[in-house]
């Protein structure tokens, strides 16, 4: 039953053996023992608390002007914007910002609308597992979640004025008391790290902050409706023990940004929020009801039902143009084993790779026995960090073909922030035609192949989204590691040449909310729960849709990892179980060519 999940965890060790891994700059420095030159070195927690406090789009107070604050590698922007007819100061932090900015003519979109084709192309696969023994699923499904969920933040002013803020209130800002306490008691993971990685990706098609046009209201919400038993889209019922659900997104919706982690010092103001609009495929699978706007598709040759979204509401994004990242290229391996054995990572060698105009910091890192007499910060000339710290701080890594992140970042700075004349569209056009399509994946960067087991799994799971007779070729993968307060801002994944091939996106660990938008920043997203073992497939039209992960659930009740945890009972498994309880891992696998 949990084969998919289990297989993923079997290969988890390998997914942390990628060639490239990346930490937030400040974290990297802190973790590796660098000192801030000249500056006061503040504890990481303080920095995290500070940047975590403001929510995306958080309205603070009236103000004028614009300022950007870069804080130890983190960044936030304070802008003056007009909300509700008055000018107010807005703090924006790590907002995803990728508009559908690829100029007409360069965008690789589907040549022809073909609904049947699209059904295959825009797929989300979801694995749903049998209820825990004794669990009352019907009761579970009927229970309304809102009463159990509260939102951090208090009055934010005009939540519907910007859809992004609607999303923040409706889903992103959702907080469960137990989560808050766990957040406070744990060392807060930087809420921005995953976004940072994404920010680099997005920068290539970023537009400056623009006033929202044609704003739409919040989505009407997907209503439950009785299923028509003659619905041709309904698949044959599968064996309950192998209930894996495939969701097919015909038109996806877009995400929004994030909610900040509660400030460690201030108690968050908790308001109630309503998660009843969050699509729960688990419940749909258990139910005889479908939800309006979602249908099930029979997919020959694939033993799991396929669910599709019919419509595409939208959301909008606001732009935030700031990033400061340090990419560290270099292989690490056996991270979990190193944690288990209390090893430390030392930088054995530090080189700088030259890639065209870029210089990329590249290290040779090895895990070595920790020496009781050697403090982490005093390893001779080596910078070092304990494997457990590294695991906690790790936010993403890549497998297979590498992307030259720093190049994109530099180019973006030149193109977008440089004074090159022309209007925004022209600048974006220049940027895209000159750089994006020719400079995304860098085939010259050293890399390892994606682990074979992961390739195999991706190929199998990609079937519903592949053109018939073609096999998915996994060439690159990004592994996102989400801590309790991490989130992934709205973005497009458009680096790959052929958008008709799916991205196979596997969720592991704690349950998350996934937001799915449209092709425009102004489209309102639909939100859905992704549980451990779920797989999202996106291809074709869906590649043009914004999506993101505003939050994960780490409290015992909502994380839904108990069955998974029960599979790790060995003594050596404790570092994995500890990690699973507070984390979500997403592995998204791509065919690049
Ligand atoms: O974590 C997820 O479910 C989505 C990840 C994603 O969209 C990405 O890495 O591009
Ligand atoms: Fe993505």
Automatic annotation (TrEMBL):
Give the record's cofactor note, including how many are bound. Binds 1 Fe(2+) ion per subunit.
Q: Which cofactor does it need?
A: Fe(2+)
Q: Does the keyword 4Fe-4S apply?
A: no
Q: Which domain of life is it from?
A: Eukaryota
Please give the coiled-coil regions recorded for this protein: none
- Domain Fe2OG dioxygenase residues, every copy: 473-593
Q: Which GO terms describe its molecular function?
A: broad specificity oxidative DNA demethylase activity; ferrous iron binding; oxidative RNA demethylase activity
State the Gene Ontology BP annotations.
Answer: oxidative RNA demethylation
Residues that bind Fe cation: 491, 493, 547
- Residue span of region Disordered: 129-154, 203-238
Q: Locations of Polar residues compositional bias? A: 207-232
InterPro entries, from UniProt?
Alkb, AlkB-like, AlkB-like_sf, Oxoglu/Fe-dep_dioxygenase_dom
Similarity field: Belongs to the alkB family.
- What's the name of the protein? Fe2OG dioxygenase domain-containing protein
Naturally occurring in which organism (per UniProt): Zingiber officinale
């Amino acid at each position: 039953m949990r084969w998919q999940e289990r297989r993923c965890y079997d290969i988890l060790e390998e997914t942390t053996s990628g060639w490239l891994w990346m930490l937030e700059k400040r974290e990297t420095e802190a973790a590796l023992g660098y000192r801030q030159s000249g500056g006061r070195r503040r504890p990481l927690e303080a920095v995290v608390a500070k940047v975590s406090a403001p929510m995306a789009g958080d309205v603070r107070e009236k103000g004028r002007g614009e300022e950007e604050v870069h804080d130890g590698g983190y960044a936030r922007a304070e802008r003056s914007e007009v909300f509700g007819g008055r000018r107010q100061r807005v703090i924006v932090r790590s907002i995803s910002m990728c508009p559908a900015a690829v100029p007409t003519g360069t965008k690789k979109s589907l040549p022809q609308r073909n609904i049947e084709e699209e059904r295959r192309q825009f797929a989300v696969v979801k694995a749903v597992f049998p209820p825990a023994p004794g669990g009352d699923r019907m009761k579970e499904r009927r229970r309304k979640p809102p009463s159990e969920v509260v939102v951090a933040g208090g009055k934010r002013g005009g939540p519907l004025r910007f859809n992004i803020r609607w999303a923040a209130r409706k889903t992103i800002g959702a907080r469960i008391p137990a989560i808050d306490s766990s957040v406070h008691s744990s060392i807060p993971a930087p809420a921005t790290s995953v976004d940072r990685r994404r920010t680099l990706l997005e920068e290539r098609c970023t537009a400056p902050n623009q006033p929202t046009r044609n704003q739409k209201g919040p989505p009407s919400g997907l209503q439950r409706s009785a299923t028509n038993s003659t619905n041709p889209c309904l698949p044959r019922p599968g064996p309950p023990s192998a209930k894996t659900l495939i969701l097919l997104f015909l038109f996806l919706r877009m995400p929004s940004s994030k909610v900040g982690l509660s400030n460690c010092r201030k108690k968050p103001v908790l308001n109630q929020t309503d998660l009843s609009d969050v699509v729960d495929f688990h419940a749909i699978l258990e139910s005889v009801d479908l939800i309006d706007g979602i249908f099930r598709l029979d997919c020959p040759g694939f033993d799991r039902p396929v669910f599709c979204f019919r419509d595409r509401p939208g959301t909008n994004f606001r732009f935030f143009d700031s990033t400061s990242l340090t990419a560290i290229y270099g292989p690490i391996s056996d991270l979990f084993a190193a944690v288990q054995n209390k090893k430390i990572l030392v930088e054995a060698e530090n080189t700088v790779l030259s890639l065209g105009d870029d210089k990329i910091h590249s290290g040779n890192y090895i895990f070595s026995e920790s020496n009781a007499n050697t403090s982490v910060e005093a390893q001779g000339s080596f910078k070092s960090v304990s494997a457990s710290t590294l695991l906690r701080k790790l936010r993403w890594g890549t497998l297979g073909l590498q992307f030259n992140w720093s190049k994109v970042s530099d180019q973006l700075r030149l193109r977008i922030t440089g004074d090159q004349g022309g209007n925004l569209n022209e600048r974006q056009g220049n940027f895209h035609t000159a750089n994006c399509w020719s400079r995304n994946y860098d085939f010259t960067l050293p890399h390892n192949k994606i682990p074979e087991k992961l390739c195999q799994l991706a190929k199998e799971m990609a079937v519903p989204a592949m053109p018939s007779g073609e096999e998915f070729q996994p060439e690159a993968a990004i592994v996102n590691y989400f801590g309790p307060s991490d989130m992934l801002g709205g973005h497009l994944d458009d680096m790959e040449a052929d958008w008709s091939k799916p991205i196979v996106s596997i969720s592991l660990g704690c349950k998350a909310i996934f937001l799915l938008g449209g092709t425009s920043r102004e489209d309102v997203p639909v939100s859905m729960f992704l549980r451990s073992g779920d797989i999202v497939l996106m291809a074709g039209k869906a590649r043009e849709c914004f999506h993101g992960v505003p939050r994960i659930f780490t409290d015992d009740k909502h994380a839904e990892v108990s069955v998974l945890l029960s599979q790790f009972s060995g003594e050596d498994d404790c570092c994995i179980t500890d990690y699973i309880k507070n984390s979500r891992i997403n592995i998204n696998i791509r065919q690049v060519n």
